Amino acid sequence: MIGERVDGHSFLGNVENSGASAALVSQTNESLGLQQIVCDNPLIMIGNIANAWRKQFDIPVIGITGSNGKTSTKDLLVHVLQSSYNVHATQGNFNTTIGLPLTLLQMDNEHSISILEMGASVPGEIDVLCRIAQPTHGVITNIAPAHLEGFGSIETITQEKGALFRSLENGISFVNLADDKVAGIKISGKKITFGLTPECDFPADIHQENNGSLTLILDSHDIPTGSQNLSFIKNSIAVTAIAVTLGVEWNNVIERIQSFTPTSGRCQVKQFDDITVIDDTYNANLISSLAALDYLKSFSGNGRRIFVFGDMFELGPTSHEQHRKVGKKCTELELDGVFTLGQNTIYTDSMINNGIDHKHFESHDELIHSLKEIVHSGDKILFKGSRGMAMEKVIKGVFAD
User: Fold this and answer.
1) pTM of whole model > 0.90?
2) Which of 152, 202, 161 is nearest to 182 (CA)?
3) Which tens digits make up the pLDDT trace of 288-335?
4) How confident is the model over 1-29, as a mean pLDDT?
5) How does pLDDT run across 214-249, given as a tens digit for each residue?
């Protein structure tokens, strides 16, 4: 493929040397012995090939999209369904018009179910992904102001994410009634509802135990999660609704939720001596950042609660205001420290008051140096920022020794 910065055809020699049997190209390199299959648009063609391959399999294919929690929900659903199925699933962030076809081509006869994450940064991409993948089931985790740079408005985001449900005329849509935007999407086929409301197929409630952990009460079943992370609980509601509908026994669902360990960078709790680090560095937008702050505040004990925050990207003209909202939340929660990094988090810093210790930094090295002087035993520290901010470098820099 020919990208904005790089022409993939320039790597055909490397492809041949790596042992590939053929390459899909829009222009040939006659100096190579590599078999080259010529087409007008390799991106469209790989989607067509993946769609033809997907049609060979008569198994449930679950599409997952949403503004937040796609990968976390996918990872948890994989873990739960592995108790009853041989699961094929998206690896990493292969959720695009390039990554999803490549994921589908990894499906084989041993798989009994497929879980496909679907991402979009501009309008029309979810529809394309659904036409390629032909999901039989789908869930939209939530709808929030993420990727506004590409979509422009929350209404456009709702229309885009809703393409998953519209593709399920002969399938099942799992609808989160706790999200008004999701609940308002027109459903083409069968609908199964869930959420923190009594009027749904999988009604949920949350109980906080004396130690601060959360117990999920779902359709009259108690699920002690051992977690204080409300986002994890919400993901568990969606995953349970899907798993039970697909025939997984309740006791298996409960055991798998309790045994799940989040992947690095996704609200993973780490201990460095007596310092608790919440590594939520994989990505950030407004809703996920506010939820992560609630998670930080929920930690028990006498130590300080500190937030280390990098820029949120792709927010368009609302970027400054969304960064301010994060700062306002920090003040409302009366955190002990807020330390920001980047260009846009200066607006977060501007909203910090109530005597909270705070400072803005423009480089990773400066932030790391200061944090080494600031943190001490008993602290609970949340690290978060968009992928491009690489906030995991700060964790490594502060705690590598």
Assistant:
1) no
2) 161
3) 999 999 999 988 778 999 999 999 998 999 999 999 999 999 999 999
4) 93
5) 999 999 999 999 888 889 999 999 999 999 999 999
Cα(47)–Cα(338) distance, integer angstroms: 45
Angstrom distance (rounded) from CA 73 to CA 240: 10
> Which tens digits make up the pLDDT trace of 147-156?
777 888 999 9
Task: Answer positive or negative: Cα dihedral of 274, 280, 284, 290.
Answer: negative
Residue 285 sits in the same domain as residue 376: yes
Nearest Cα residue to 267 out of 287, 282, 247: 282
CB within 8 Å of 188: residues ≥ 6 apart: 165, 166, 167, 168, 169, 173
Cβ-based burial of 127 (10 A; exposed 0-12, middle 13-18, buried ≥19)? middle
Residues 298 and 386 in one domain: yes
375: CATH: 3.90.190.20
Say if residue 338 is in the same domain as residue 315: yes
Q: Are residues 51 and 150 in the same domain?
A: yes
CATH number for position 222: 3.40.1190.10
Per-residue H/E/C for the chain:
CECCCCEHHHHHHHHHHCCCCEEEECCCCCCCCCEEEECCCHHHHHHHHHHHHHCCCCCCEEEEECCCCHHHHHHHHHHHHCCCCCEEECCCCCCCCCHHHHHHCCCCCCCCEEEEECCCCCCCHHHHHHHHHCCCEEEECCCCCCCHHHHCCHHHHHHHHCHHHHCCCCCEEEEECCCHHHHCCCCCCEEEEEECCCCCCEEEEEEECCCCCEEEEECCEEEEEEECCHHHHHHHHHHHHHHHHCCCCHHHHHHHHHHCCCCCCCCEEEEECCEEEEEECCCCCHHHHHHHHHHHHHCCCCCCEEEEEECCCCCHHHHHHHHHHHHHHHHHCCCCEEEEECCCCHHHHCCCCCCCEEEEECCHHHHHHHHHHHCCCCCEEEEECCHHHCCHHHHHHHHCC
Interatomic CA distance for residues 20 and 226, integer angstroms: 47
